[in-house]
């Protein structure tokens, strides 16, 4: 297998890896800023609220992704919405 100058073929792009690391660091910084100082009396309550909000957001986005992918699958399955190339290929092969 031949690799490119960033690594092996099919490996993750260094730009994607860097952006994921930056996003993680920003997420931790935002969480810490919203939760307040760790020595504060309300840190535990704020941290629990933030974790609950993150869990609800994750669940809602998961449902939306499922609904969106089902909608796209149904939309692309309709013969009226297929590209002319696909329709022509089906006629030739039929």
General description of the model:
There is one protein chain. This protein has helices at residues 14-35, 43-77, 84-93. By secondary structure, the protein is mainly alpha-helical. The chain has one domain. The longest helix has 35 residues, at 43-77. 0% of the residues are buried.
Q: Structural class, please?
A: mainly alpha
Shape summary: flat
Let me know the largest β-sheet: none
User: Count the strands?
Assistant: 0
Number of domains: 1
Arithmetic mean pLDDT? 77
Distance between the termini: 38 Å
State the helicity in percent bands: over 70%
Give the uncertain stretches in residue-range form. none
Short characterization:
The chain is an all-alpha fold. It has helices spanning 14-35, 43-77, 84-93.
Task: Label this structure with key terms.
flat, 3 helices, 0% strand, 94 residues
Task: Give me the secondary-structure topology.
Layout: H1 14-35, H2 43-77, H3 84-93
């Amino acid at each position: 297998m031949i690799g490119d100058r960033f690594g092996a073929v099919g490996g993750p792009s260094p730009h994607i890896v860097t952006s994921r690391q930056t996003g993680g660091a920003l997420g931790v910084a935002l969480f810490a800023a919203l939760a307040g100082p760790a020595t504060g009396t309300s840190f535990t309550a704020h941290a629990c609220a933030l974790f609950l909000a993150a869990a609800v957001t994750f669940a809602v986005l998961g449902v939306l992704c499922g609904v969106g992918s089902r909608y796209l699958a149904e939309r692309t399955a309709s013969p009226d919405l297929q590209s002319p190339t696909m329709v022509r290929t089906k006629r030739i092969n039929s």
